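As promised in the previous annual report, we have extended the structural survey to additional targets. Below is the entry for methylmalonate-semialdehyde dehydrogenase (CoA acylating).
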Amino acid sequence: MQTIAHWLDGKPFAGTSSATAPVTNPATGVVTGQVALAGVEDARAVIASAKAAFPEWRDTSLARRTQILFRFRELLNERKEELAKLITAEHGKVQSDALGEVNRGLEVVEFACGVPHLIKGGFTENASTKVDIFSIRQPLGPVAVISPFNFPAMVPMWFFPIAIAAGNTVVLKPSEKDPSSSLWLAELWHEAGLPAGVFNVLQGDKVAVDELLDNPHIKAVSFVGSTPIAKYVYQRGTASGKRVQALGGAKNHMVVLPDADLDLAADAVVNAGFGSAGERCMAISVVLAVGAVGDELVAKITERAKTIKTGDGTRDTDMGPLVTREHRDRVAAYIDAGESAGASVVLDGRGIQADGAADGFWLGPTVLDHVGTAMSVYTDEIFGPVLSVVRVDSYDEALQLVNDNPYGNGTAIFTNDGGAARRFHNEVEVGMVGINVPIPVPMAYYSFGGWKNSLFGDSHAHGIEGAHFFTRGKAVTTRWLDPSHGGLELGFPQNK
Ligand code: NAD
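The corresponding structure token record, generated without further manual editing, is:
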């Protein structure tokens, strides 16, 4: 059985703590490795490595930094299938989906190759007589990235390529459920020529996270995970004076108006609801069927969802297992609760015969109709292959439900009415909006982030906001010619 270690000073680091956690292949139920769980001393050792590497890295020219980034990009592109296989083995998502995740991460690496342009400063000549001013953006120092299980490669890549390109050093704390991708990425950086200590990996749980939040050498934290932990990370990190962006959970609603193309809408619901077994923060989990479309839409969704092949992601399947047995049982319990509360189970994934080992963590696509807004299937983030259909009478009622929801990550509207779509994107209180697009994940050069309980902090991930998050501004005022200050003058300097 393999041991999954930390990564420090450009090589694996076993750490001194003897604590470990099992890593499981969700498609077989077999424990495939033990991941190290850092103690405080291990965390401090990894942070010290990032701190020691910072001065030289921040003074490394942008030209050299971006050459290394380009090399990393080339290696990742050549070897992305290897990484996708690792993801499937620990997360369970099917191969095509794992490859999709790597490709979306790759887009951020490509964006980061152009970061020098985004962190350029400005220059003003003669702001005052013979006084010039320029502004620069400088890196922060060692920064932490704390990531969730559901995108073990893409979510870390939302942050670390930009952080590194901007001159920071990084400590990545991946999810303990699927930690191997982080080490694979660390090896790739090493091969690309990144100096030791610039990219480090700290494996662990709350102990590791708390040290990252409290340690004064960590200057910023980018967190992605569930809402209660995101809020905790934001509060504790900012209390110790750090810059924090903490992206949380979601409950994404898709509104289907009566004039929508129902075949297109049903395809979109099924793809966005059951892709990655619903374990995506941008998954659609609630369909708001407006007016008379309910019966026909539910029939079309169910007909399509029935054709999904659930099974081992290394085989020719569409949807893999859930990440752990506990999580599968928790999601199944939500279906039980919805049924008991009066929702109609029009497609039942409990007890599915999957194309995989008997001990895999299987749950098939499930569609619940006539869901009420007080039911736990509606109020809670389920994070599984469960679609709830809520019937509403009007656009206004649909909008109200989306806006009343405590989460505000993603949403979509399906319609052929441009005016309704225009109203929706203007009125909806959600950070990422799709119009006839079910998973509106922005490209790397836009920023990714939700509103309300889906994000704590002011900065969204990547894009210009990412480049700003990982740098801080400095304004420099200079006078070289005619250095006379006009003698002693204690009044506040005025521009002439
Ligand atoms: P999680 O909150 O359980 O874990 C996220 C990270 O926090 C992990 O690295 C974990 O080790 C750490 N952690 C867990 N408990 C902790 C504690 N008590 N104290 C300190 N650190 C702790 O989330 P998860 O189950 O890995 O991921 C799924 C969640 O992430 C879902 O809620 C999903 O919506 C959310 N998510 C959000 C986005 C987004 O962009 N908004 C993207 C992906 C996932």
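The mean pLDDT is 97. The two ends are 73 Å apart (CA to CA). These points will be discussed at the next consortium meeting with the crystallography subgroup.
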